[in-house]
Amino acid sequence: MSDVDTLRSILTAYRQEVQPHWSPATSHPAFDGKQGDPAGQCGVTSAWAQWKLREDHGIYATYCVGDVFALGKLALRDHCWLEINDGRNWLVVDLTAGQIPHVSDLPILYAAYSELRQDGIAYLYRRRFTAEQLLADPVQARLAILTAEVGR
Predict the structure, then answer these.
(1) Which of 20, 80, 105, 128 could form a disulfide bond with 43, CB atoms 3.0-4.6 angstroms apart?
(2) Which pLDDT belongs to residue 89?
(3) Is the model's pTM score more than 0.70?
(4) Which of 151, 142, 152 is nearest to 23 (CA)?
(5) Does position 135 have pLDDT exceeding 90, yes or no?
(6) CB contact at 8 A, 123 and 68
(7) Domain containing 133: what range?
(8) How high is the mean pLDDT of the chain?
(9) What is the 3-state secondary structure (H, E, C) of 13-40?
(10) Number of domains in the chain
(11) Do 26 and 123 form a contact (C-beta atoms < 8 A)?
(12) Residue 118 — φ and ψ, nearest 5°?
């Protein structure tokens, strides 16, 4: 199994682990937060995955906030995802990709920025945070709820 396949397997397992715990309490306040629905869960899920990747596998991911464009049109504003540098490329890791038109058939997205551009998808970040920088972000309150639900 290649490193790419291994990481994809890890991310798929993370999505399966966290999805049952998405709730109104973990959702961004601007969303209704239906149980198990990815809408409004991008920030808390990305923060959780950032921590898990580091703790479980020593992978340091960057937390991003920005907009997603599909086929030249704004598909999702103020979205959160992770970036990982694999030594060759910057990769987008989005465990809530299913809420984005044009990629909604993918529950998770794991691809190089350059590959996504070829498919007409652009993740454009406005802000980026290390795990330490994210400690001051309001997402931490929802992250505490999610980690208590999922367990450590």
Answers:
(1) 80
(2) 87
(3) yes
(4) 142
(5) yes
(6) yes
(7) 3-150
(8) 91
(9) HHHHHHHHHCCCCCCCCCCCCCCCCCCC
(10) 1
(11) no
(12) -65, -30
Tell me what pLDDT residue 1 has.
41
Q: Which of 64, 80, 70 is nearest to 118 (CA)?
A: 70
Of the two residues 140 and 2, the one the predictor is more confident about is 140
* Pick from 84, 64, 62, 85: nearest CA to 76: 64
Asked whether 63 and 82 are in contact (CB, 8 A), the reply is yes
Least Cα distance to 97 among 124, 117, 120, 75 occurs for 75
Signed CA dihedral, 86, 90, 93, 98: sign only = negative
Sheet holding 62-70, edge to edge: 109-112, 90-94, 73-85, 62-70, 121-129
> What string of DSSP letters covers 76-104?
EEEEEEEEEE-SS-EEEEETTGGGSTTTT
* Average pLDDT for 12-19: 94
> Residues 39, 77: contact at Cβ < 8 Å?
no
Task: Give the C-alpha separation, 17 to 35, whole Å.
Answer: 14
